[in-house]
Amino acid sequence: RRDSTVQGTRCAYIQQSRSYGSLTIIPVFSWRSTLSSNLFNNSPRQDVPSLYSDLAFTLLTYALCLSNLARSNVSALGNYEHDQATSDIERKAKDEKLNFAVNLLCRASGVFRHLSDVLLPEWERTGISPAARPPDITQPVASALAKYKPSLPLS
Q: Which region holds residue 127: left if phi is over 0, alpha if psi is between -120 and 50, else beta?
């Protein structure tokens, strides 16, 4: 086993012998759980093997960032739709910002859907057990996040 640091993520390489006698290097990435850390009241690092795990956590993080950015953009708009003092120019500008937030949520949903429908099934076909995965990067969770309709307060 050999450890190295790649952009703040500890990466260990495990050499495994295959039945045909050659060596294969499988990267093992260390990530902190994003969603389940609140459930378990801690966020320990988890070693997860393969590039699929790193890509899955990267896409999960990206989609969560898109969702959070959408929420902060909508929160910054305030309750403009009921404000009589808002001019048409201001209203159109805020409508455009709202449309941008909706676009971000659609992107996040697409990333979650890709994670659930494409990446995670490909990962399962590699033979690495899904039981070893953190709950954050399982098909049911990614699928549920793709369908999630967050309540974006406008006040």
A: left
> Do the beta carbons of residue 46 and residue 60 sit within 8 Å?
no
Average model confidence (pLDDT) across the chain: 77
Average confidence (pLDDT) over 114-139: 84
Distance CA 92, CA 6 (A): 44
Amino acid sitting at position 65? C
Residue 137 phi/psi, 5° resolution?
A: -115, 55
Contact 9, 31 (CB under 8 A): yes
Question: What pTM does this model have?
Answer: 0.74
Q: Kindly tell me the burial class for residue 132, based on how many C-beta atoms sit within 10 Å of its own C-beta (0-12, 13-18, 19 or more).
A: exposed
> Tokens in use for 76?
């910054």
Identify which of 26, 60, 32, 27 has the alpha carbon closest to the alpha carbon of residue 46: 32
